[in-house]
Protein: Microcystin degradation protein MlrC
Amino acid sequence: MKRVLSGGIAQESHSFNPIVTRRERFTIQSGNDAVARNRGANSTLGGIISSADEVGTEVEVPILFRAQSGGPVEDSVFEEVKDAMVAAARKGSFDAIVLPLHGGMLTTSLSDPEGDLIQALRDVVGPDVPITAAFDLHAHVTERTIAPLDFLSAYLTNPHGDQAATSRRAFQAARDILEGRLDPRCAAVLFPMLTLGNDRTDEAPLRRIHAYAKAQVDNGSVYDVSIFNAQQFLDVKDLGQVVLVYGNGENEVAQRVADEIAGSLWASRDELVGTYPSLDSCLDRIETENRTLVLGDQGDRVAGGGPGDSTFILNRLIERNFNEPAVVPIYAPEEVQKCMAAGVGAEIVLTFGGRYSTVSPPIRAEGRVTASGSKTPVVYDGPSDGGTTIHLDDWAIFQFGKIQVLLTSQPYAFIDPAYYRAVGVDLRVTKLIVVRSGYHFSLNFASVGECITIDTPGITSYYVDRLPWNTARPFYPVDKIDYSPRHYLRSRQAKAL
Structure:
C-alpha cells in the first residue's frame, strides 16, 4: 500500500440547536501541513498517519475540516469538502481511502452527509479500491452509511481515549484487504433504542458488553466489532443502536455475534439510563470540604451539540454568594467584542448569556476585563485527542468577585485544561472549574480535580422526552416499544445481501 487518500469533515450535530455551524467554526487543514500537524496526535487522522509511517505509505490529505459539536453544518461547507475529496480521488493512483470522520454530522439538508461523501468517493474509484473509515461511537449509522464501505471501525471507549487506535484498525483493514488477508463480511444489527446517561464503557453494563465483544475478536471468531451508541439528539430516521461485526470470508459467526451483542444491549436497556448529582450538592462540597471540582454542565454540553451559553450554573453561584475561585465559560460573541473594545483593566457592566440556552436568564453584572486575546493556540494534553491543536477565536475574561467568566466568540467544549491555561487561568487555585462536556473532560482533567457531570437543564440533558421530535420516534425508552431489530449483511463481492 503506497498511497492512501484521507481527510474529510468531522463534526457532531444537534438537531435542536438553532445555531447553524458555518465555515468559521472549523479548523481547516490540508496537504503536508495537515500531515505534519497531526503526526503523533491521539486523533483519527493521527492514527492513520502513524500507521502509514510504519509501513512507508504516503498519506494525501486534500482537505480536513474539524469543528466542535453544534447545530447542523451549512450545506455549502459540506459541499466544499466533498468537492475537494472527490477531485482528489479523480486524480487517482490511490491504493486505498481511509477516512477520519465522526459519523454524527447533519447538514441543513442531509441526515447522513458522511454516507453521501463516502458514496461519492465510491462512485469515482469503483468497487476494487478499499474504502475504510473510523467513526466516533456516537455516530448515526444506517445501511446507507455501511453500503459503500469495506470496513468501518468505532471508538471502543467512552470517554474517548482511543481515537488513534480506532483509525489504526481502519488502516489495517484496508491493508489486509489489499494484501489478501481479509475478505470482509459485515453483519449489522440496528434497533431503535437510546442510551441515556449511563453509557461509559468503563462502567457496567457497557464494560461487560465490550469485554464480550473484545473476546470474540481476540479468540479469532470475528475480525472486528464496533458498538455504536447513537448521539441522542439527532431527529433523523432510524436513530438507534448499531452493532457492526466483521467476519473474514463468512457471515454466519459474525451474524451470531452481532445478534448476541445487540440482545445484551436491549436486555440492559433500563440500566443504560443514568442519574446525576445536583449542582447545589457539588457546591456544598467545595465550600465545606475545600475540594477542587471540575463540573460538566450536562444540560448545555457543547461536546453534545449544545449552544454553550447557558447561565444556569453562573446564576446559581450568584444566588448563593459563592465565594470560592471559579471559572465558567459562556459563548457570548458580542460581549467579547465589548470587552476587547474596553480594554484589559476596564471596569464595565455586561449583560450576557441565555440567548440560545433559555433555561436560565441572562446575567447582568459589573466587573473587570482581566484578559483578552484572539487566535490563541490550544494544544490538548490528552489523553482524549492528546496533541491536537485548535485555536481559540476572540475571547475575554470578565471577572466579578472571585468568579472568572471566560467569554468566547465561538462555542467550545473545554474538555482539556489547556483551554484555561492558554488564557491565563491558574487552575491550581481555582476550586470550581466548569466545562461544557459530559464525559471526555474526565480523562483530561483527572489530574486537576474531581470530575463530576451534574444534572442541569438544557437541550443536551438526557431528558430527551422534552425535545420537540418530528422524525426519530418511536425509540426506547421514551416510547415503550418491543425489540425490533433490522439486519444487514454486506460483502465486498455482493454489496448488500
Q: What stands out?
A: The chain has a mean pLDDT of 97. DSSP finds 13 helices and 22 strands in the chain. The two ends are 29 Å apart (CA to CA).
